[in-house]
Specification:
- There is one protein chain.
- The protein is an alpha+beta fold and about 475 residues long.
- Among the domains are: about 120 residues, no CATH class; about 70 residues, no CATH class; about 100 residues, no CATH class.
- It contains eight helices and 26 strands.
Length: about 475
């Protein structure tokens, strides 16, 4: 407390009178303004605040002590004046009895009004800062879980195959020809027997024989006259001889059956003429020919099919793209279309058979199959994830394919899934967090399904441990 009397009071009284003489005493506007300002500076300089972990510490006065506050300022003011005095906002302003009192009273009310406006503005700024300035970012780290999958795959369906990789059908037409000698033989008559038959006319009239007149041998073979002939009549009185003519005949049947020894072809015609071969009739013979048999067709067909099959793999390999190979056991062969140069029984020394055959097989690229298998693994792992789970794309690890056999492999895959909190629940919790303390907010956030860790950031840094009052100032981020 400051003293109200004594030596200091007398000194101050002298100073006050000197100031009044110069026009700056307490009774003037300048004197009132100067002494009020000195108090405000002292009062304002006495306020300070600092934040520490766990809460806020607030103190008044300079470091190491407490200020006298408003009541002390009033008491000091009264001691200085030794008269009736008051501070702004505490019942009035310093007032002095005597000359000029009314003027100083008007100035006091003006100062009170200005101070009130400043306080109201400051209070509004504090409220606005409390409501609008604070912001918070809530980061939710979802839980993760491991998922594993084993996939056995190949390029053809089969026992133990979980998935069939991509392949394509390769189709080609194979053509070829095979030839060989005919194995059959047959004896055939060759040539026609010819000879001379003598005809005797015992009648007294000449007889005309047209070409084609038949002469029959004792063996039953028949011979035909090759040209028209007139057999003269007999001359019993002059030459005393029958009419005679030698005729050229040929056998109707080819081959040796038409040959006849002397006297075999003899007899009498209806016209009464007598005939007989006086020399052998010959010229007919036999010849052996090669003939196509059924066995020839079967043999050459088999040889053709074998030749076509030998060409199949070469033709199919030529139709493959780079990096492809054929699937073992996938070959399909149509019946060949065959054409023979001669039918069975035909006279031929040489037989040719031509054919074409359509074949197809499955082809695949091992690189594309393995790549597709990884995609299938990812798809199946995605199917294994439940609602609210997301497969972390960069976490999938697929082993190198393990060879199980011909065109069969196995891979093992490991991936991680992240549990994603429900969007609706996160939004509902965000609204609930408005105005909550940090501890209470952390407890509520950990209760969200799928949340593994929580981080809360408050802005500005000096803001107390409580989330903003407005939910719009709270941002929730799911990592």
């Amino acid at each position: 407390m400051w003293p109200r009397s004594g030596g200091r009071s007398k000194v101050r009284e002298k100073r006050r009178r000197a100031a009044a003489a110069r026009g700056r005493g307490p009774g003037t506007r300048e004197g009132v303004r100067g002494e009020a300002t000195s108090w405000r500076d002292q009062a304002d300089g006495a306020r300070s605040a600092r934040w520490v972990d766990g809460g806020e510490e607030r103190g008044l006065g300079p470091a190491g002590g407490a200020s006298p506050g408003v009541a002390g300022a009033e008491e000091q003011w009264g001691s200085l004046r030794g008269e009736e005095a008051a501070l702004p906002g505490a019942g009035g302003l310093y007032r002095r009895r005597g000359r000029g009192g009314e003027r100083r009273r008007g100035m006091g009310w003006l100062l009170v009004g200005s101070t009130s406006l400043v306080l109201v503005a400051a209070l509004a700024g504090v409220v606005a800062a409390v409501v609008l300035l604070p912001a918070a970012t809530v980061r939710l780290v979802p839980l993760t879980a491991q998922r594993t999958l084993v996939l056995t795959y190949g390029v053809r369906p089969g026992e133990g195959i979980d998935w069939v990789g991509p392949s394509r059908v390769v189709e080609v037409v194979v053509e070829g020809a095979v030839e060989g000698p005919a194995s059959g033989s047959r004896v055939v008559p060759v040539g026609v027997a010819r000879g001379v038959v003598r005809v005797v006319n015992p009648t007294l009239q000449a007889v005309d024989l047209p070409a084609g007149t038949l002469f029959v041998a004792a063996s039953g073979q028949r011979y035909r006259l090759m040209a028209d002939v007139t057999v003269p009549a007999a001359d019993p009185f002059g030459r005393q001889a029958f009419g005679v003519a030698d005729l050229l005949v040929e056998a109707l049947a080819a081959g040796p059956e038409g040959n006849a020894e002397v006297g075999v072809v003899s007899g009498e015609l209806e016209s009464g003429l007598l005939y007989r071969n006086l020399e052998p009739i010959s010229g007919g013979s036999l010849r052996s020919l090669r003939v196509v048999t059924e066995e020839d067709h079967v043999r050459l067909r088999a040889a053709l099919e074998e030749a076509l099959r030998r060409q199949v793999w070469g033709e199919l390999e030529g139709a493959l793209a780079e990096g492809e190979r054929l699937v073992a056991g996938s070959l399909e062969v149509d019946a060949p279309e065959v054409e023979f140069s001669d039918p069975v029984g035909a006279e031929s020394d040489w037989l040719v058979v031509r054919g074409r055959m359509r074949v197809r097989a499955l082809a695949f690229s091992a690189a594309r199959v393995h790549e597709a298998a990884q995609g299938e693994v990812l798809r199946r792992l995605s199917e294994l994830t439940g609602p609210g789970e997301v497969l972390v794309g960069q976490s999938l690890v697929v082993s190198e394919p393990e060879v199980l056999g011909e065109d069969r492999w196995r891979v093992r895959a490991v991936g991680w899934v992240r549990l994603v909190p429900a969007e609706g629940e996160v939004e509902e919790v965000r609204k609930e967090l408005a105005g909550k303390g940090v501890g209470e907010a952390m407890e509520r956030l950990r209760g969200i399904g799928g949340v593994g860790a929580v981080e809360i950031e408050l802005r500005p840094w000096w803001w107390r441990e409580r989330l903003p009052l407005r939910a719009e100032r709270i941002e929730v981020v799911v990592w």
